[in-house]
Amino acid sequence: MINHFSQRIFAEWGLQGTLRSMVELLIHTEEDFHFFINRSKGNSGRFFFTLHEIRRRKLRGMSLTFEEFERVCRNNKRQALERLFLQKITDDDLDRLGERTSQEIFELHSRLPLGTTFSIFALYLD
Prior knowledge:
This protein has 9 helices and no strands. 72% of the residues lie in helices and 0% in strands. Helix 2 packs parallel to helix 4. It has helices spanning 4-13, 17-26, 30-40, 44-61, 66-75, 77-85, 91-97, 102-111, 118-123. The chain has 126 residues and is mainly α.
């Protein structure tokens, strides 16, 4: 479900594709909303960079434990991965994981640099 902060951004700039997905995933608070508005200043060329800044800030402040990741993963693997990476996870992304366990995924993720995207993470799977 899209929150009202995301809706305000969509109404103003009509974002599509990757930018829209990033806004839906990252903009959930008034602080996020104002940070996005103030940093991008309506310049569509700055949207991606501003969203990337928000993602990195959220990752630095995140404290997702393995137990919590595993619990969410049992119910909804996509949702668990989206919380871990703070990015949309596609069906193809899920397929790339194969039969890896939540523990294998979490441990590999924890060894990689902060902010590693799923596509970079997937390079380490083989």
